[in-house]
Amino acid sequence: MAFDYAPAPESRAVVDLASSYGLFIGGEFVDGSGSSFKSISPATEEVLAEVAEATEADADKAVAAARRAYARTWSTMPGSERAKYLYRIARIIQERSRELAVLESLDNGKPIREARDVDVPLVAAYFFYYAGWADKLEYAAPSWQPDGSRGSAPAPLGVAAQVIPWNFPLLMLAWKVAPALACGNTVVLKPAETTALTALFFGEICQQADLPPGVVNIITGAGETGRALVAHPDVDKVAFTGSTEVGKEIARAVAGTKKSLTLELGGKAANIVFDDAPIDQAVEGVVNGIFFNQGHVCCAGSRLLVQESVFDDVMTRLKRRMKTLRVGDPLDKNTDVGAINSPQQLAKIQELTAVGEAEGAQRWSAPCDLPDRGYWFAPTVFTEVSQAHRIAREEIFGPVLSVLTFRTPAEAVEKANNTPFGLSAGVWTDKGSLILWMANQLRAGVVWANTFNQFDPTSPFGGYKESGYGREGGRHGLEAYLAH
Amino acid sequence: MPTKSSASGQRLDVRKTYKLYIGGAFPRSESGRSYAVHDAKGQFWANAAQASRKDARDAVAAARKAFGSWSGRTAYNRGQVVYRVAELLEGRRDQFVEEVQRGEGVGKRQAQAGVSASIDRLVWYAGWADKLAQVVGSSNPVAGPYFDFSVPEPTGVVAVVAPQQSSLLGLVSVVAPVIVTGNTCVVVASQTRPTPAVALAEVLATSDVPGGVVNLLTGSAAEVAPWLASHMDVNAIDLTGVNDSGLRTELQAAAADNLKRVFLGPAAEPDWSAGPGTARMRAFLEIKTVWHPIGI
């Protein structure tokens, strides 16, 4: 006898959406000078709101507001006062967490369970963590002083232009805004065009916290808006999270300027399962590694490397587990895999998976009923994948796993590192010395051993090679926003 | 055995052929080119090898080959190897004083001070090998049952455009921080003052620094550096010796092709006798974070 789940929808009544939104500049919501675009729910294709498309003139206004706030208030305010503003923000995020979680799920398509249990709690935690650094910066890195002197806090950089992606809209906002503000910078943030609503909601949180006007400015729009912001001559610092392609474009654009740059870009992480690993735990980790957030994760474990001797066992259990994944309404509290964020992203996933089949890899998708409306892709795994296949080399950024095999630890390392990316990696084994040897050999910024996709404000995160440079989180995350 | 030439009554000295230093060997430029180097008084000194694109690529290949074993050494060992370079430099200080004095046109006392500072700088950096991880690494108190730590690792192959003016102290000050942390490098020496770099290569070749860890090219930075900046197997680039702002921008933009870490250095050549701080080491490090669950 099979039991089925009854629908357990989260109420969206808790979210009070306006029909249109302006830009958040100088502490107020103002009309943009350009056109607007529609923000839709990827699960239903319903229009959630109209959002302003910021122009170059709007970007200029926002940078000017940030510059004024930097010069007049924020950079000269004692760190202890900045800290209290950030603590206030962290508390308001906790107070309004339910609204934020529902809005994030609506706008992004991610399961409410993830928005509620992962994204929003982490957002509050990042603000709480960096709040405490604001009045302790002189302890952040005594080794920075070439003359060996201590005691003075390193200086902020000035106005930071921050461009963030659509996969973790609020969390990426927190990773960018919290350390920048703690260090005494002011910011102009551009959220992704498909997921701007929670960032605009954050503008309202800044108002509730009485944050001085201009310390945080939020301008919405697509690539052109981002380009104008990054290119603005009065910007001191650029921080970008997104694709490697755009990251390279930004690196070229800032060449020859005074702007400092940090980049958190793509990945093609290997998740490596050795034959002595607890297989059920490893399979859970593999599922979490690639199907968490629909695989819209830069550090997703998108290449599964399985030791040959346990390949059959791992694949049997993996498919059995994938069959139990519940794909559908993101607002349903039982949903495991939500909607693909946009039709463009869905098309990209479809294209690459078609290439995977055409190149000879074997495709298997979990049987599941996908809703009629919205953008959906069933959890999918490819076997018989070679390292030359595009699905083994390119970031798919969707719920698609490519499986390869290996015999020896050295071969696993060779295959894992055979990529221009280097963001993350996973290792599953019961042998402690092997874990540490692998952790040593893997050229990746984060190594999860017997776990995957863990994040914490105290823990530095960032890439090697073409996954970008700079770290977010921890004491290291401060370095991106201080002169040193 | 005759030791003096019959004509002048003086012995004719044996001159050195100035070569490149790649993979622990001393090849001429594959291009067969050389260029005249003059001392500070404008007198002809030597014909130095003029490195080509191919030489630069060979040097990158040598640096990549050396990276695995050099970065895999223990920090204690790397520290001793760099310290040994200081020992050898001390033993040949008269030669280096002469090189610096003649090439830079400074007085003997100043040249001596520069060589002393170069030796001391190597000693200073050598000591960092097994200390930097404790200064820039961390144990991270995450909000969950996980052991979580962050350690620095070398970035990989670093291309270095060495300072144009300070031919020994400047050179040592840019090379030591790169290698002591486990990186390997391809260095383009000062174009007009390359002789201390060649002499340093001779010291390195007889030291315990494995071949390929430091590769030294002489020639034109404007010609060679663009190939290094756009090379897809170079992980980082130090533009300290590039003082032309147009070329700096061009190299910085080229470095974006594979997202090299770029260390710009000061716009004009600094006073190298000042304390260096840790910036040059930190510029060529990656922070790796490792998580593991805690439980029974």
Task: Sum this structure up briefly.
Chain A is an alpha/beta fold. In chain A, 37% of the residues lie in helices and 16% in strands.
Please render the helix and strand layout as text:
The complex is a heterodimer of chains A (484) and B (296).
Chain A: E1 20-21, E2 23-25, E3 28-30, E4 36-40, E5 47-52, H1 56-74, H2 79-95, H3 97-108, H4 112-133, E6 159-163, H5 169-182, E7 186-190, H6 197-208, E8 216-218, H7 223-231, E9 237-241, H8 244-254, E10 260-264, E11 270-273, H9 279-291, E12 303-307, H10 311-323, H11 343-358, E13 362-365, E14 380-383, H12 390-393, E15 400-406, H13 409-417, E16 424-428, H14 432-441, E17 446-449, E18 468-469
Helix pairs in contact in A: 1-7, 2-4, 3-4, 4-5, 9-10
Chain B: E1 34-38, E2 44-49, H1 53-72, H2 75-91, H3 93-104, H4 108-128, H5 132-136, E3 138-139, E4 146-154, E5 157-161, H6 169-180, E6 184-188, H7 195-205, E7 214-217, H8 221-229, E8 236-238, H9 245-255, E9 261-263, H10 279-282, E10 285-293
Parallel strand pairs in B: 5-6, 5-8, 6-7, 8-9
Antiparallel strand pairs in B: 1-2, 3-4, 4-10
Helix pairs in contact in B: 1-8, 2-4, 3-4, 4-6, 8-9
The computed structural class of chain B is alpha/beta
Order of helices and strands of chain B: EEHHHHHEEEHEHEHEHEHE
Structural class of chain A: alpha/beta
Helix amount of chain B? 40-55%
DSSP helical segment count of chain A: 14
Strand order of the largest sheet of chain B: 7-6-5-8-9
Largest sheet of chain A: 7 strands, mixed
Number of β-strand runs of chain B:
10
- If you consult CATH, what is the topology of chain B? Aldehyde Dehydrogenase, Chain A, domain 1
Second rung of CATH, namely the architecture of the largest domain in chain A: 3-Layer(aba) Sandwich
Strand order of the largest sheet of chain A: 13-14-15-12-11-16-17
Number of domains of chain A: 2
Proportion of residues in β-strands of chain A: 15-25%
CATH superfamily of the largest domain in chain A: Aldehyde Dehydrogenase, Chain A, domain 1
